[in-house]
């Protein structure tokens, strides 16, 4: 049996392109991760393996030169000679981005539902406005400081800003999920079976849209955590947002230390993504 | 089950009139097919009975109780849609038991009832499955079981067979038709397929342009159409109906 040439060459070509693209994208990540354990990285490739010094410095476990702050390790428990400490500042800045996601969920899901479910006067405007804050963080940051000088530099200001900046991604992800299911039919089935509207929304509509909500939350969190421009303009004092933490460790640092900071950021993103996914699949499980 | 009475129901959306003075009585235990081309107002009529549309004028009554302004969750109406509309966040069994859960019935009891219904529809072994793993015909059975579980006043079926392949449609039509008459269900069966309407329904209401053109037994509608529209609409597929036994 002969194989069609298009199939013979086509499949190979697609596979090769895919491998090349993935490889091209992955090499920097892998190299950075490997480099974070190197003592020296002055040439093309890092050398002097293996040291944990970079990670210690980034994690604030080792003394560093200059005024670079640690991640705020706070002792919460001391037993014998051992102390259990948590990087409270790191946790706080992860929570800043999560706070933005929380607002996005509370505000974005109903907006997405309204736009997907109902034809009302001005629905296109609501849709457009919910996507409007797709402006660069610098612009929103400056406008934000002008409009709400009291919120400048506060954690709440950052959280609100993140939610505004990333809301479009939540609305778009959830809306397309709503649009892909027979939303009205689901709602009417639940209502006819005796569920009130709020109950229908919470026990049927939202759980049925879970995959869109989870992916929206992951996109929003990742983008909020990496949002440098807005954070840079609005943040004044106190715990630093993740993006600023990253910048602090990249500028004025050795290559290897920057690599450790970037790798840590990767790790946090992976962990939060997995956590959001887990919460998403378990949190909506109404069985039992 | 109950007797359903629509009295001069009119529904307008701005300038357009979707339903224009429809009066219809569905007797207790009777299945009435609402037949007509798309856009004739049959789905709006059904939604009015379910309570999702409030008529601009006219009344809807279940037995002697006026339910015109009763919200859908308090009407005790079973709905079956073409799109199945199963809740993907629940198992098949939980889908069927959902209405009972809303009525505060204990878990063990609603589980038992769900299993009975699924057994009756020949898919008893699928109670713990995820509905998305079922075939179209199986999903539609689950939809039917879910609607029947609440022992509704009236069962409303909106093009339930559309989208299924011809062979399955024929089988399901026989099974479901038998089941509905066995359970003595009062039903409104909306369809654009006259063959389906004639085989499954006790009476047929032919709608066009928001009005009832004729209400009668399949035989009456077929043999003595009241208007030109009925005659054209019903006779279109008539040669395919030699198996209709009068």
> How many domains comprise the coordinates of chain B?
2
Rg of Cα set of chain A: 24 Å
Number of distinct helices of chain A: 12
**Helix-and-strand structural type of chain B:** alpha/beta
Q: Bin the helical content of chain A.
A: 55-70%
**Globular, elongated, flat, extended or rod-shaped: what is the shape of chain B?**
globular
Mind describing the biggest β-sheet of chain B?
6 strands, mixed
The CATH topology label of the largest domain in chain B is Rossmann fold
Short description:
Chain A has twelve helices and two strands, in the order H-H-E-E-H-H-H-H-H-H-H-H-H-H.
Structure in words:
- Chain B: GO terms for molecular function: ABC-type tungstate transporter activity; ATP binding; ATP hydrolysis activity.
- Chain B: It comes from Halopenitus persicus.
- The complex is a heterodimer of chains A (288) and B (246).
- Chain A has helices at residues 5-35, 53-58, 88-117, 123-131, 137-147, 155-179, 183-192, 197-208, 210-225, 229-234, 242-250, 255-283, and strands spanning 73-79, 82-87.
- By secondary structure, chain A is mainly alpha-helical.
- Chain A has a domain at 90-240: MetI-like fold (Orthogonal Bundle).
- Chain A has a two-stranded antiparallel sheet with strand order 1-2.
- In chain A, strand 1 and strand 2 form a beta hairpin.
- Chain B is α/β, with parallel strands linked by helices and 246 residues long.
- Chain B folds into two domains: 1-76 and 152-231, Rossmann fold, CATH 3.40.50; 87-150, no CATH class.
- Chain B has helices at residues 42-50, 92-102, 107-120, 136-149, 166-182, 194-200, 218-223, 228-235, and strands at 4-13, 16-26, 31-35, 57-62, 65-66, 77-81, 154-158, 187-191, 203-208, 211-216.
- In chain B, strand 4 (57-62) and strand 5 form a beta hairpin.
- Chains A and B meet through helix 7 and helix 8 of A and strand 6, helix 2 and helix 4 of B.
């Amino acid at each position: 049996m002969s194989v069609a040439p298009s199939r013979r060459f086509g499949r190979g070509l697609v596979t090769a392109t895919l491998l090349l693209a993935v490889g091209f994208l992955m090499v920097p990540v892998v190299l950075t991760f490997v480099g974070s354990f190197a003592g020296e990285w002055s040439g093309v490739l890092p050398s002097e393996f293996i040291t944990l010094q970079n990670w210690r410095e980034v994690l604030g476990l080792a003394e560093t030169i200059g005024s670079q702050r640690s991640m705020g390790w706070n002792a919460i428990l001391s037993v014998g000679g051992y102390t259990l400490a948590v990087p409270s500042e790191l946790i706080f800045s992860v929570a800043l981005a999560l706070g933005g996601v929380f607002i996005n969920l509370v505000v974005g899901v109903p907006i997405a539902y309204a736009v997907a479910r109902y034809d009302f006067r001005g629905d296109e405007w609501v849709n457009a406005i919910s996507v409007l804050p797709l402006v660069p963080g610098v612009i929103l940051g400056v406008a934000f400081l002008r409009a709400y000088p009291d919120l400048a530099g506060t954690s709440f200001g950052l959280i609100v800003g993140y939610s505004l900046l990333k809301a479009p991604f939540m609305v778009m992800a959830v809306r397309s999920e709503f649009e892909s299911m027979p939303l009205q039919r689901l709602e009417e089935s639940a209502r006819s079976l005796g569920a009130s509207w709020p109950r229908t929304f919470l026990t049927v509509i939202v759980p049925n849209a879970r995959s869109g909500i989870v992916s929206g939350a992951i996109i929003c969190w990742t983008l909020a955590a990496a949002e440098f421009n807005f954070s840079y303009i609005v943040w004044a004092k106190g715990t630093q947002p993740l993006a600023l933490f990253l910048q602090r460790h990249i500028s004025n640092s050795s290559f290897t230390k920057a690599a450790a900071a970037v790798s840590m950021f990767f790790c946090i993103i992976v962990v939060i993504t997995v956590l959001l996914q887990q919460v998403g699949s378990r949190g909506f499980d109404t069985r039992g | 089950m109950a007797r359903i009475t629509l009295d001069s129901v009119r529904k307008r959306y701005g300038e357009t009139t979707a339903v224009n003075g429809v009066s219809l009585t569905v007797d207790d235990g009777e299945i009435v097919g609402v037949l007509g081309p798309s856009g004739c107002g049959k789905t709006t009529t059904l939604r009015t009975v379910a309570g999702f549309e409030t008529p601009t004028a006219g009344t809807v009554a279940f037995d002697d109780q006026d339910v015109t302004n009763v919200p859908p969750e308090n009407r005790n109406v079973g709905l079956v849609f073409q799109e199945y509309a199963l809740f993907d966040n629940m198992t098949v069994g939980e889908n069927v038991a959902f209405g009972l859960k809303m009525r505060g019935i204990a878990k063990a009891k609603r589980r038992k009832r769900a299993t009975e219904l699924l057994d009756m529809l020949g898919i008893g072994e699928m109670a713990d499955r995820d509905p998305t793993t079922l075939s179209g015909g199986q999903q539609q059975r689950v939809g039917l079981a879910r609607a029947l579980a609440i022992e509704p006043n009236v069962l409303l079926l909106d093009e339930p067979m559309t989208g299924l392949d011809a062979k399955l449609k024929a089988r399901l039509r026989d099974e479901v038709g038998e089941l509905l008459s066995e359970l003595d269900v009062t039903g409104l069966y909306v369809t654009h397929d006259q063959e389906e309407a004639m085989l499954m329904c006790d009476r047929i209401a032919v709608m066009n342009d928001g009005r009832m053109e004729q209400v009668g037994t399949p035989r009456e509608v077929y043999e003595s159409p009241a208007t030109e529209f009925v005659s054209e609409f019903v006779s279109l597929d008539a040669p395919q109906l030699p198996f209709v036994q009068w």
